[in-house]
Protein 1
Amino acid sequence: MQTRIKTIPILPFGMLNAFLAIGPGGAILVDTGLPGSTRLISRALEAAELGWRDIKLIVLTHGHIDHAGSAADIRRLTGAPVLYHTLEMRYCMGERPVLHPTRLFGRLFLMTGAIERPFPPVTADIQMQGESFDLKTLGFAGTVWHTPGHTPGSVSLLLSGGDVLAGDLAASGILLGGIALLDRPERPPFEEHPHIAARSLEELLSMGAKRFYLGHGGPLGVEPIARHAARLKRL
């Protein structure tokens, strides 16, 4: 049975997404949304005829508040281990993130201070230190890959069928992402190293990635991602 992806809308119109990767042995929760997102995730589980204990792993693609804000709460509810890369520990434990706005919206958003608000810190039960973590030990056909660029410790989950849960390695839509023009790839509002992000995207494509599920907007196919990576390399 192929792992299926269920999008969890944390904000409407695709502005902010978390995901369930559902297999025969349960589910992996990829990102946890803003603080206070547990009710939204609970509803998504119910819709998929699952409960909290069906979550076998929590993967944080990176340590920004909109992706890791509810991780500590959800670990308590599920008992599932939290996985993130060791390079992301400082953000997940409360250090203010490095934020390089990519466009006007990012600069305006930064002025609100929303992305720099503290959230409950979360330690990693599984702390990635290398380039990959094989999910077969948990009964899933896929791999978590270190895909830096958005942040130094960003990771992406690549499933055997070619689906990728890529966090903020890319975005699509307008403003924060989502809303409209979802087929148009964009840089996320903040990005630490665009050339490194381009390399990470190209590496995922070389490993057979076919469909990119994104934290803001998406999903996107191979051609838009390839064009986006080429554009990043020209910056």
Protein 2
Amino acid sequence: MHIRPIKNEEDYLQALAYIESLMDAKPDTPQMDALEVLTTLVEAYEEQHHKIEAPDPIEAIKFRMEQEGLKQKDLVAMIGSKSRVSEILNRKRKLTIEMIRNLHKQLHIPVESLFADYKTQCA
């Protein structure tokens, strides 16, 4: 395959197929060079055309809880009381900076995700 810019979805799919065929390339070979160049092109195309939005803070917390097998009670030390955890997870109250720091430090949720704005159900 001739490596060229990815201009549309068809080019993108062809590049992905070619990348798949190069996955067993050995280091310091023309095949590995092609793989590295194509990967860079695909990443740039995906950033423009297939961007995945980051989850809002509550979804990020719930996702990490699921990953770690955590229950609401496990967040008490990071957020406050059981009722405060419930309010946060049910979108009745916003996260405070202290909560964000604790969640980031203890659950390793990216700060960018935790600081994102989100809607609450309170008036």
Protein 3
Amino acid sequence: MSLSPVLYGNVCQGLTAALHDHGVLVVTFTAPERMNALDQSMKRDLIELVTRVQMDDAVRVLVFTGEGRAFCAGDHMGGYHEGEPASVAKIGGGHSTPIGTAQALRVYSQALNLAVRNLDKLTIAAINGPAIQTGLSLALCCDFRIGSTAARLGSATLRFALLPDEGGHALLVQHLGLAQALDFVLRKRIVDAETALRLGLLNEVVTPDALLPAAMALAAELAEGPQVAMRMLKRSLYNAAESTFSQALDDIAVRTAVTDHHPDARDGGASFREKRAPKFNAWLEGE
């Protein structure tokens, strides 16, 4: 990766974003004093950042990680307006009334997870420590999850008589199946990295020192692949998880009508015949 990554946009206190070689954008949660718990301003800036990433051809892969000993230990309880610049008007509402709770969930917590899940670019969560509640849901919205041996994953909202209201319940059903999801949330489980790997919540477990290098190596691999086809396939896979078989067939047929006629596919076929490595993504590199 680049020795001098480029800072990417203006984000609030508690976040940094840096663009590395291969179009890999690394977003780091930088509030270790509260185990990188997210507040309102961080969620708002993350939603805006992910929207920018969706439209920016310079970014191919998005990596999330945390500074210090946690990935993200949930919401910053009582701190939803901390970190707001003095020039930015505080957004009212919130959890003081029932309708305020519903609105805050839809506008911030759920909107953040939707933004990450709906991103066409590929995403990786490099989970360096506890990923709890909001942190777990954000990680589960990513396409790949690499955990260090120090990672801990859980919802555990019932410890406070609260619900996984940002969408974690649905994500756990998709990843674990209904029976395992019931066991996971109703028994308030927080599991270690090896257990998370066995359950399928992690793709890989590495030592803490190897975590970011492993995530960046995976990001570079994904960034060199045919971006149009990969993004189309990613969306078809997520759609298939929530569709009938017939709907999934229709969806991928329409996407194939695009990818089969893309320059990447033409060079892919030519490279096979010519026994050479394909030259993908010329459209991104100005060739």
